[in-house]
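To close the section, here is one more complete example, presented without commentary so you can practise reading it yourself. The ligand is 2NL.
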Amino acid sequence: MQSKIEGYIAEIKAFVPTSADELEQFRIKFLGRKGIIGDLFEEFKTVSPEEKRLLGKVLNECKQAAEAKFNDFKESFTQESDIASAIDLTLPGMPVAVGSRHPLSLVRKEIVEIFSRIGFTVAEGPEIEDDWHNFSALNFPEEHPARDMQDTFFIEKNSGSEKGDVALRTHTSSVQVRMMEAGKPPFRSIMPGRVFRNEAISARAHCIFHQVEGLYIDENVSFADLKQTLYYFVQELFGKGTEVRFRPSFFPFTEPSAEMDISCKICGGEGCNVCKYSGWVEILGCGMVDPNVLENCNIDPEKYTGFAFGMGIERITMLKYQIKDLRLFFENDLRFLKQFKSEII
Ligand code: 2NL
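Output:
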């Protein structure tokens, strides 16, 4: 019996399966319910006690060799067959997650497209500005409150004179100044960009926000051109039939100046909390470029006139999508952002 067992041990050790099937045959042959190892143990029961002492060791060695061989190869074959059965080429593909545009980017894009259709180009400029381009050229008086530390983020403050002050731009008008200084009329451009004001963050205010300003300068540009241009813009952005009205206002860089309201899109003019029960909501400021500003930029105010306007993208986006809190734009909460899926991103 001993040599028989040793024969099996040699066979087990020499065995190298090449498939899961072969390994299964091996298992049945040696370790199965009616397998060789079981039979040997049955036979073992019948031998004399002296023989048992001798045979016990080899028999156990044989059993362990068979089990070890089976376990060694089981892993490699089961893994392979698991993968094979997991790949089902008839299944539909895995969807690729596509992001979405930020609502502010969507609205900026829309504004840019509307003005492009009537010949406005897009201009950009630096976010860090000197006093001249952000304030002085725009006719801000020396003591204007916007020049105060409380309203503007200064990077360098020159004591005594404003010359040499460096700040984060508070509006994109500085881009228009640069454009006028660098070229010759006519100018017809819009300036989208980030602007910075030293304000406490709340549902209605933030220290960083986005603006689009516009400038049109040529011979014989009138207030009627301004009204018609902005009327067209509102019809395109908020839909045909949206009413507009202009209220007199004041800005240092325009004269005359106005603020433009549109009929409330939420209540249709009936009165609601968005329009504060007036039926109208303000969307932008505008006016005829002050002759002092033209002169500061080396443009002859006797020959050229122009209009300018400025709007906050956050405000327009809040109105368009009925968003109640400005802070949502800056929190990057996916539950908010995912609601602005556009078909083309
Ligand atoms: C507002 C008002 C406005 C302008 C911006 C401008 C620029 C130059 C000359 C004259 Cl270079 N004007 N920009 C004009 C009127 C209003 O913005 O409420 N913005 C959010």
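Once you have examined the tokens, check your reading against these statements. Residues 2-86 form one domain. The mean pLDDT is 90.
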